[in-house]
Design brief:
Layout lengths: L10 H35 L4 H29 L6 H21 L4 H29 L5 H25 L5 H22 L11 H8 L13 H18 L4 H9 L3 H11 L2 H19 L3 H20 L3 H29 L6 H34 L4 H17 L13 H13 L1
Helix pairs in contact: 1-4, 1-5, 1-6, 2-4, 2-14, 3-4, 3-6, 4-14, 5-10, 5-11, 5-13, 8-13, 8-14, 8-15, 11-13, 12-13, 12-15, 14-15
Protein backbone atom coordinates (compact mmCIF):
# COMPACT_ATOMS: atom_id res chain seq x y z
CA UNK A 1 0.00 0.00 0.00
CA UNK A 2 1.35 3.40 -1.00
CA UNK A 3 1.84 6.20 1.49
CA UNK A 4 1.48 8.89 -1.16
CA UNK A 5 -1.89 10.33 -2.15
CA UNK A 6 -1.85 11.57 -5.73
CA UNK A 7 -2.68 15.24 -6.11
CA UNK A 8 -4.57 15.46 -9.37
CA UNK A 9 -3.80 17.97 -12.08
CA UNK A 10 -6.93 19.55 -13.62
CA UNK A 11 -7.84 17.33 -16.56
CA UNK A 12 -7.46 19.91 -19.32
CA UNK A 13 -4.14 21.13 -17.96
CA UNK A 14 -2.87 17.57 -17.60
CA UNK A 15 -3.69 16.83 -21.24
CA UNK A 16 -2.08 20.04 -22.50
CA UNK A 17 1.07 19.49 -20.43
CA UNK A 18 1.37 15.87 -21.53
CA UNK A 19 0.98 16.86 -25.17
CA UNK A 20 3.91 19.27 -24.80
CA UNK A 21 6.11 16.72 -23.03
CA UNK A 22 5.29 13.62 -25.05
CA UNK A 23 4.96 15.37 -28.40
CA UNK A 24 8.28 17.17 -28.36
CA UNK A 25 10.25 14.28 -26.83
CA UNK A 26 8.96 11.78 -29.38
CA UNK A 27 9.45 14.27 -32.22
CA UNK A 28 13.12 14.67 -31.28
CA UNK A 29 13.76 10.95 -31.63
CA UNK A 30 11.59 10.39 -34.71
CA UNK A 31 12.80 13.40 -36.71
CA UNK A 32 16.37 12.18 -36.34
CA UNK A 33 15.36 9.06 -38.26
CA UNK A 34 13.80 11.13 -41.05
CA UNK A 35 17.18 11.75 -42.64
CA UNK A 36 19.03 13.80 -40.03
CA UNK A 37 21.11 11.06 -38.43
CA UNK A 38 21.55 9.27 -41.75
CA UNK A 39 23.08 12.35 -43.35
CA UNK A 40 25.12 12.98 -40.21
CA UNK A 41 26.58 9.49 -40.68
CA UNK A 42 27.10 10.11 -44.41
CA UNK A 43 29.16 13.19 -43.52
CA UNK A 44 31.46 10.93 -41.47
CA UNK A 45 31.70 7.70 -43.49
CA UNK A 46 30.35 8.51 -46.96
CA UNK A 47 27.21 7.30 -48.76
CA UNK A 48 28.67 3.92 -49.72
CA UNK A 49 28.90 2.79 -46.06
CA UNK A 50 25.82 4.46 -44.61
CA UNK A 51 23.47 1.42 -44.61
CA UNK A 52 25.81 -0.80 -42.62
CA UNK A 53 27.00 1.95 -40.26
CA UNK A 54 23.48 3.27 -39.65
CA UNK A 55 22.30 -0.25 -38.86
CA UNK A 56 25.15 -0.63 -36.36
CA UNK A 57 24.58 2.77 -34.73
CA UNK A 58 20.83 2.41 -34.31
CA UNK A 59 21.13 -1.25 -33.37
CA UNK A 60 23.61 -0.63 -30.56
CA UNK A 61 21.58 2.34 -29.32
CA UNK A 62 18.39 0.27 -29.39
CA UNK A 63 19.91 -2.57 -27.37
CA UNK A 64 21.33 -0.12 -24.86
CA UNK A 65 17.92 1.45 -24.30
CA UNK A 66 16.34 -1.97 -23.86
CA UNK A 67 18.47 -2.25 -20.70
CA UNK A 68 18.55 1.40 -19.62
CA UNK A 69 14.85 2.22 -20.07
CA UNK A 70 13.41 -0.30 -17.55
CA UNK A 71 16.15 0.60 -15.07
CA UNK A 72 15.29 4.25 -15.54
CA UNK A 73 11.61 3.46 -15.04
CA UNK A 74 12.33 1.59 -11.80
CA UNK A 75 14.49 4.47 -10.55
CA UNK A 76 11.81 6.99 -11.51
CA UNK A 77 9.18 5.04 -9.54
CA UNK A 78 11.35 5.23 -6.39
CA UNK A 79 12.44 8.87 -6.78
CA UNK A 80 11.49 10.82 -3.64
CA UNK A 81 12.29 14.45 -4.45
CA UNK A 82 9.86 16.96 -2.99
CA UNK A 83 8.90 18.34 -6.41
CA UNK A 84 7.50 14.91 -7.39
CA UNK A 85 9.02 11.98 -9.24
CA UNK A 86 7.28 12.61 -12.57
CA UNK A 87 8.04 16.35 -12.71
CA UNK A 88 11.66 15.74 -11.70
CA UNK A 89 12.31 13.32 -14.55
CA UNK A 90 10.50 15.43 -17.13
CA UNK A 91 12.90 18.28 -16.35
CA UNK A 92 16.02 16.10 -16.07
CA UNK A 93 15.10 14.22 -19.22
CA UNK A 94 14.65 17.41 -21.20
CA UNK A 95 17.97 18.85 -20.02
CA UNK A 96 19.85 15.58 -20.54
CA UNK A 97 18.26 15.08 -23.94
CA UNK A 98 19.24 18.58 -25.02
CA UNK A 99 22.84 18.03 -23.96
CA UNK A 100 22.91 14.73 -25.86
CA UNK A 101 21.58 16.42 -29.00
CA UNK A 102 24.42 18.96 -28.81
CA UNK A 103 26.88 16.05 -28.52
CA UNK A 104 25.34 14.48 -31.64
CA UNK A 105 25.44 17.74 -33.58
CA UNK A 106 29.18 18.16 -33.00
CA UNK A 107 30.14 14.46 -33.08
CA UNK A 108 33.29 13.88 -35.13
CA UNK A 109 33.34 10.07 -35.00
CA UNK A 110 30.91 7.15 -35.07
CA UNK A 111 31.55 6.11 -31.41
CA UNK A 112 30.51 9.61 -30.29
CA UNK A 113 27.42 9.38 -32.50
CA UNK A 114 26.51 6.06 -30.86
CA UNK A 115 26.99 7.45 -27.34
CA UNK A 116 24.95 10.58 -28.10
CA UNK A 117 22.21 8.52 -29.74
CA UNK A 118 21.99 6.22 -26.70
CA UNK A 119 21.85 9.11 -24.24
CA UNK A 120 19.27 11.20 -26.08
CA UNK A 121 16.94 8.23 -26.46
CA UNK A 122 17.28 7.42 -22.75
CA UNK A 123 16.62 10.98 -21.57
CA UNK A 124 13.76 11.72 -23.98
CA UNK A 125 12.36 8.29 -23.14
CA UNK A 126 12.28 9.33 -19.47
CA UNK A 127 10.22 12.39 -20.46
CA UNK A 128 7.62 10.33 -22.33
CA UNK A 129 7.64 7.64 -19.65
CA UNK A 130 6.94 10.19 -16.90
CA UNK A 131 4.09 11.74 -18.88
CA UNK A 132 2.52 8.35 -19.63
CA UNK A 133 2.87 7.19 -16.01
CA UNK A 134 0.70 10.10 -14.90
CA UNK A 135 -2.32 8.59 -16.69
CA UNK A 136 -2.92 5.55 -14.42
CA UNK A 137 -2.03 7.74 -11.42
CA UNK A 138 -4.31 10.71 -12.08
CA UNK A 139 -6.97 9.68 -14.64
CA UNK A 140 -10.07 7.54 -14.10
CA UNK A 141 -9.95 4.16 -15.93
CA UNK A 142 -13.09 4.92 -17.92
CA UNK A 143 -11.20 7.78 -19.63
CA UNK A 144 -8.10 5.75 -20.55
CA UNK A 145 -9.13 5.36 -24.20
CA UNK A 146 -9.79 9.03 -24.97
CA UNK A 147 -6.75 10.19 -22.98
CA UNK A 148 -4.51 7.67 -24.74
CA UNK A 149 -5.95 8.78 -28.06
CA UNK A 150 -5.17 12.43 -27.40
CA UNK A 151 -1.75 11.76 -25.92
CA UNK A 152 -0.97 9.29 -28.68
CA UNK A 153 -1.73 12.01 -31.21
CA UNK A 154 0.80 14.38 -29.63
CA UNK A 155 3.88 12.71 -31.08
CA UNK A 156 2.55 12.50 -34.64
CA UNK A 157 1.34 16.11 -34.53
CA UNK A 158 4.75 17.41 -33.49
CA UNK A 159 6.52 15.09 -35.94
CA UNK A 160 4.31 16.43 -38.73
CA UNK A 161 5.01 20.03 -37.79
CA UNK A 162 8.72 19.32 -37.52
CA UNK A 163 8.79 17.56 -40.90
CA UNK A 164 7.13 20.51 -42.57
CA UNK A 165 9.58 22.96 -40.98
CA UNK A 166 12.56 20.77 -41.92
CA UNK A 167 11.23 20.62 -45.48
CA UNK A 168 10.94 24.40 -45.66
CA UNK A 169 14.49 24.76 -44.35
CA UNK A 170 15.82 21.70 -46.21
CA UNK A 171 19.05 23.46 -47.23
CA UNK A 172 20.08 24.31 -43.66
CA UNK A 173 23.01 22.15 -42.38
CA UNK A 174 22.11 19.06 -40.37
CA UNK A 175 23.97 20.42 -37.33
CA UNK A 176 21.69 23.45 -37.13
CA UNK A 177 18.59 21.28 -37.56
CA UNK A 178 19.63 19.19 -34.53
CA UNK A 179 20.27 22.22 -32.32
CA UNK A 180 16.93 23.85 -33.22
CA UNK A 181 15.00 20.67 -32.38
CA UNK A 182 16.79 20.36 -29.02
CA UNK A 183 16.02 23.96 -27.98
CA UNK A 184 12.32 23.63 -28.78
CA UNK A 185 12.01 20.43 -26.77
CA UNK A 186 13.82 21.88 -23.76
CA UNK A 187 11.43 24.83 -23.57
CA UNK A 188 8.33 22.63 -23.98
CA UNK A 189 9.61 19.99 -21.54
CA UNK A 190 10.15 22.51 -18.75
CA UNK A 191 6.73 24.07 -19.47
CA UNK A 192 5.17 20.60 -19.17
CA UNK A 193 6.75 20.03 -15.75
CA UNK A 194 5.58 23.42 -14.48
CA UNK A 195 1.98 22.73 -15.50
CA UNK A 196 1.71 19.30 -13.86
CA UNK A 197 0.80 18.83 -10.19
CA UNK A 198 2.81 16.10 -8.51
CA UNK A 199 3.41 15.05 -4.90
CA UNK A 200 6.50 13.69 -3.24
CA UNK A 201 6.57 9.90 -3.33
CA UNK A 202 7.29 8.49 0.15
CA UNK A 203 7.56 4.82 -0.75
CA UNK A 204 6.18 1.76 0.98
CA UNK A 205 6.65 1.16 4.67
CA UNK A 206 5.46 -2.43 4.89
CA UNK A 207 8.20 -4.96 5.63
CA UNK A 208 6.91 -7.18 2.85
CA UNK A 209 7.39 -4.49 0.23
CA UNK A 210 10.78 -3.51 1.65
CA UNK A 211 11.93 -7.11 1.44
CA UNK A 212 10.67 -7.43 -2.10
CA UNK A 213 12.54 -4.32 -3.24
CA UNK A 214 15.74 -5.42 -1.46
CA UNK A 215 15.72 -8.64 -3.42
CA UNK A 216 16.83 -6.68 -6.44
CA UNK A 217 15.56 -7.77 -9.82
CA UNK A 218 13.97 -11.07 -8.82
CA UNK A 219 10.48 -9.67 -9.37
CA UNK A 220 11.49 -6.99 -11.86
CA UNK A 221 9.37 -8.40 -14.70
CA UNK A 222 5.67 -9.04 -13.91
CA UNK A 223 5.00 -12.76 -13.49
CA UNK A 224 3.53 -14.41 -16.58
CA UNK A 225 1.61 -16.79 -14.32
CA UNK A 226 -0.10 -13.93 -12.45
CA UNK A 227 -0.28 -11.37 -15.27
CA UNK A 228 -0.21 -13.25 -18.63
CA UNK A 229 -2.00 -10.37 -20.35
CA UNK A 230 1.00 -8.14 -19.66
CA UNK A 231 3.33 -10.40 -21.66
CA UNK A 232 0.85 -10.78 -24.52
CA UNK A 233 0.51 -6.99 -24.67
CA UNK A 234 4.29 -6.65 -24.72
CA UNK A 235 4.58 -9.14 -27.60
CA UNK A 236 1.97 -7.39 -29.72
CA UNK A 237 3.85 -4.12 -29.21
CA UNK A 238 7.17 -5.73 -30.06
CA UNK A 239 5.86 -7.24 -33.31
CA UNK A 240 4.09 -4.07 -34.45
CA UNK A 241 7.14 -1.95 -33.70
CA UNK A 242 9.29 -4.36 -35.70
CA UNK A 243 6.86 -3.60 -38.51
CA UNK A 244 7.11 0.13 -37.89
CA UNK A 245 10.90 0.07 -37.54
CA UNK A 246 11.13 -0.54 -41.27
CA UNK A 247 10.07 3.07 -41.82
CA UNK A 248 13.37 4.24 -40.30
CA UNK A 249 15.00 2.92 -43.46
CA UNK A 250 12.75 4.85 -45.83
CA UNK A 251 15.45 7.47 -46.37
CA UNK A 252 17.86 4.78 -47.57
CA UNK A 253 14.99 3.20 -49.54
CA UNK A 254 14.43 6.49 -51.39
CA UNK A 255 18.12 6.69 -52.20
CA UNK A 256 18.35 3.06 -53.39
CA UNK A 257 15.12 2.80 -55.39
CA UNK A 258 14.39 6.34 -56.53
CA UNK A 259 17.92 7.88 -56.39
CA UNK A 260 16.82 10.96 -54.42
CA UNK A 261 19.26 13.46 -52.85
CA UNK A 262 19.32 15.07 -49.38
CA UNK A 263 17.21 18.16 -50.17
CA UNK A 264 14.75 16.08 -52.22
CA UNK A 265 14.22 13.66 -49.34
CA UNK A 266 13.58 16.41 -46.77
CA UNK A 267 11.09 17.99 -49.19
CA UNK A 268 9.41 14.61 -49.77
CA UNK A 269 9.06 14.16 -46.00
CA UNK A 270 7.45 17.59 -45.85
CA UNK A 271 4.98 16.62 -48.60
CA UNK A 272 4.03 13.48 -46.67
CA UNK A 273 3.84 15.27 -43.30
CA UNK A 274 0.07 15.94 -43.63
CA UNK A 275 -0.37 12.16 -43.59
CA UNK A 276 0.43 12.37 -39.90
CA UNK A 277 -2.85 14.24 -39.45
CA UNK A 278 -4.51 10.94 -40.25
CA UNK A 279 -2.53 9.38 -37.40
CA UNK A 280 -3.75 12.12 -35.07
CA UNK A 281 -7.35 11.78 -36.28
CA UNK A 282 -7.47 7.99 -36.18
CA UNK A 283 -5.82 7.93 -32.73
CA UNK A 284 -8.38 10.29 -31.21
CA UNK A 285 -11.33 8.60 -32.92
CA UNK A 286 -10.08 5.12 -32.05
CA UNK A 287 -9.63 6.07 -28.40
CA UNK A 288 -13.10 7.57 -28.08
CA UNK A 289 -14.78 4.69 -29.93
CA UNK A 290 -13.02 2.04 -27.85
CA UNK A 291 -14.25 3.76 -24.68
CA UNK A 292 -17.73 4.10 -26.14
CA UNK A 293 -18.25 0.48 -27.18
CA UNK A 294 -15.96 -0.87 -24.41
CA UNK A 295 -13.94 -2.92 -26.89
CA UNK A 296 -10.23 -2.57 -27.64
CA UNK A 297 -9.07 -5.76 -29.34
CA UNK A 298 -10.91 -5.26 -32.68
CA UNK A 299 -9.22 -1.87 -33.12
CA UNK A 300 -5.76 -3.22 -32.30
CA UNK A 301 -6.09 -6.29 -34.54
CA UNK A 302 -7.61 -4.39 -37.46
CA UNK A 303 -5.00 -1.64 -37.45
CA UNK A 304 -2.16 -4.19 -37.29
CA UNK A 305 -3.51 -5.86 -40.44
CA UNK A 306 -3.75 -2.49 -42.20
CA UNK A 307 -0.06 -1.84 -41.49
CA UNK A 308 0.85 -5.18 -43.04
CA UNK A 309 -0.98 -4.30 -46.25
CA UNK A 310 0.84 -0.94 -46.43
CA UNK A 311 4.23 -2.62 -46.14
CA UNK A 312 3.30 -4.89 -49.04
CA UNK A 313 2.54 -1.72 -51.02
CA UNK A 314 5.98 -0.33 -50.12
CA UNK A 315 7.58 -3.59 -51.21
CA UNK A 316 6.19 -3.43 -54.74
CA UNK A 317 6.08 0.35 -55.26
CA UNK A 318 7.56 1.45 -58.57
CA UNK A 319 7.16 5.18 -58.07
CA UNK A 320 7.16 7.74 -55.28
CA UNK A 321 3.44 8.42 -55.64
CA UNK A 322 2.57 4.88 -54.56
CA UNK A 323 4.84 5.25 -51.52
CA UNK A 324 3.11 8.48 -50.57
CA UNK A 325 -0.34 6.84 -50.76
CA UNK A 326 0.87 3.87 -48.73
CA UNK A 327 2.37 6.22 -46.15
CA UNK A 328 -0.97 8.01 -45.68
CA UNK A 329 -2.78 4.73 -44.99
CA UNK A 330 0.09 3.51 -42.78
CA UNK A 331 -0.20 6.60 -40.58
CA UNK A 332 -3.95 6.09 -40.23
CA UNK A 333 -3.50 2.50 -39.07
CA UNK A 334 -0.60 3.22 -36.77
CA UNK A 335 -2.43 6.11 -35.09
CA UNK A 336 -5.39 3.92 -34.21
CA UNK A 337 -3.15 1.09 -33.07
CA UNK A 338 -1.06 3.35 -30.82
CA UNK A 339 -4.00 5.02 -29.11
CA UNK A 340 -6.08 1.93 -28.38
CA UNK A 341 -3.08 -0.24 -27.52
CA UNK A 342 -1.86 2.35 -24.99
CA UNK A 343 -5.30 2.29 -23.37
CA UNK A 344 -5.12 -1.50 -23.30
CA UNK A 345 -1.72 -1.37 -21.58
CA UNK A 346 -2.93 1.12 -18.96
CA UNK A 347 -5.82 -1.23 -18.23
CA UNK A 348 -3.74 -4.37 -17.67
CA UNK A 349 -0.81 -2.85 -15.71
CA UNK A 350 -0.14 -4.97 -12.58
CA UNK A 351 0.02 -1.97 -10.17
CA UNK A 352 0.04 1.81 -9.88
CA UNK A 353 3.11 1.91 -7.67
CA UNK A 354 5.34 0.36 -10.33
CA UNK A 355 3.59 1.92 -13.30
CA UNK A 356 6.74 3.73 -14.42
CA UNK A 357 8.83 0.56 -14.42
CA UNK A 358 6.15 -1.56 -16.10
CA UNK A 359 5.46 1.06 -18.78
CA UNK A 360 9.22 1.41 -19.31
CA UNK A 361 9.49 -2.33 -19.94
CA UNK A 362 6.68 -1.99 -22.48
CA UNK A 363 8.42 0.97 -24.10
CA UNK A 364 11.60 -1.05 -24.62
CA UNK A 365 9.74 -2.81 -27.42
CA UNK A 366 10.26 0.33 -29.52
CA UNK A 367 14.02 0.31 -29.07
CA UNK A 368 14.39 -3.46 -29.16
CA UNK A 369 12.48 -3.67 -32.43
CA UNK A 370 14.54 -0.86 -33.94
CA UNK A 371 17.74 -2.59 -32.84
CA UNK A 372 16.65 -5.92 -34.27
CA UNK A 373 15.50 -4.48 -37.59
CA UNK A 374 18.50 -2.24 -38.13
CA UNK A 375 20.98 -4.96 -37.20
CA UNK A 376 19.49 -7.50 -39.62
CA UNK A 377 18.32 -5.06 -42.31
CA UNK A 378 21.62 -5.00 -44.27
CA UNK A 379 21.63 -8.82 -44.37
CA UNK A 380 18.01 -9.19 -45.50
CA UNK A 381 18.29 -6.36 -48.02
CA UNK A 382 21.39 -7.98 -49.50
CA UNK A 383 19.66 -11.37 -49.48
CA UNK A 384 16.60 -9.89 -51.15
CA UNK A 385 18.74 -8.28 -53.84
CA UNK A 386 20.38 -11.65 -54.51
CA UNK A 387 17.11 -13.60 -54.57
CA UNK A 388 14.97 -11.14 -56.53
CA UNK A 389 17.61 -9.17 -58.41
CA UNK A 390 16.28 -5.77 -57.30
CA UNK A 391 17.32 -3.25 -54.62
CA UNK A 392 16.51 -5.76 -51.85
CA UNK A 393 13.70 -3.76 -50.25
CA UNK A 394 10.90 -5.89 -51.74
CA UNK A 395 11.97 -8.91 -49.68
CA UNK A 396 12.71 -6.74 -46.64
CA UNK A 397 9.27 -5.10 -46.50
CA UNK A 398 7.49 -8.42 -47.05
CA UNK A 399 9.21 -9.86 -43.98
CA UNK A 400 8.10 -6.85 -41.94
CA UNK A 401 4.53 -7.31 -43.17
CA UNK A 402 4.61 -10.80 -41.67
CA UNK A 403 5.34 -9.36 -38.24
CA UNK A 404 2.24 -7.17 -38.42
CA UNK A 405 0.20 -10.35 -38.86
CA UNK A 406 1.90 -11.87 -35.80
CA UNK A 407 1.07 -8.72 -33.83
CA UNK A 408 -2.61 -9.18 -34.63
CA UNK A 409 -2.54 -12.83 -33.56
CA UNK A 410 -1.01 -12.32 -30.10
CA UNK A 411 -3.71 -9.80 -29.17
CA UNK A 412 -6.27 -12.62 -29.12
CA UNK A 413 -5.38 -14.07 -25.65
CA UNK A 414 -5.63 -10.65 -23.95
CA UNK A 415 -8.89 -10.23 -21.97
CA UNK A 416 -11.31 -7.65 -23.34
CA UNK A 417 -12.51 -4.68 -21.28
CA UNK A 418 -14.27 -5.89 -18.11
CA UNK A 419 -12.91 -9.43 -18.37
CA UNK A 420 -9.61 -8.99 -16.49
CA UNK A 421 -8.91 -11.55 -13.80
CA UNK A 422 -7.20 -8.93 -11.71
CA UNK A 423 -10.04 -6.41 -11.67
CA UNK A 424 -11.02 -7.27 -8.10
CA UNK A 425 -7.49 -6.96 -6.79
CA UNK A 426 -6.95 -3.69 -8.63
CA UNK A 427 -10.14 -2.23 -7.18
CA UNK A 428 -9.04 -3.28 -3.70
CA UNK A 429 -5.67 -1.57 -4.17
CA UNK A 430 -7.43 1.55 -5.42
CA UNK A 431 -9.72 1.66 -2.37
CA UNK A 432 -6.73 1.21 -0.07
CA UNK A 433 -4.94 4.13 -1.69
CA UNK A 434 -8.00 6.35 -1.30
CA UNK A 435 -8.37 5.31 2.35
CA UNK A 436 -4.71 6.02 3.02
Amino acid sequence: MENSVYQKTPFGRLIFASILGIGTAIACMVLLGFGIIQFKIISLVGPENVTTVYGTVSGIAGLAIVILSPLGGAIADKTKFKMGRRRFWIICGSIGGGASMIMLAYASSIPVVILAFCLLQFFYGMVTLSCYAIVPEQVEPEKFGRVSGIMGAAGPAFVMSGSIVLGIFADIPVQQKILAIAIIQLVCGIACALLIKDNQFLGNESSENKKSFSQGFKNFYPSFKRYPEYTWALLTKLFIYITNAGTTLLTLFYIARFHLGEAEIFKLNAYMAPAIMLMVFSGIIGGFLSDKIKKQKPFVIGSALVLGVCLIVFAFSGNVTLVIIGNFVFNFGFGMYGAVDNALVNRILPSKENAGKDIAIMNTTTNLSTAIVNFVAPFFIALGAKLLGDDGYTFFFLILAGFSMLSALVVIPIPEVGQEKGDKNKNEVKSEIVTE
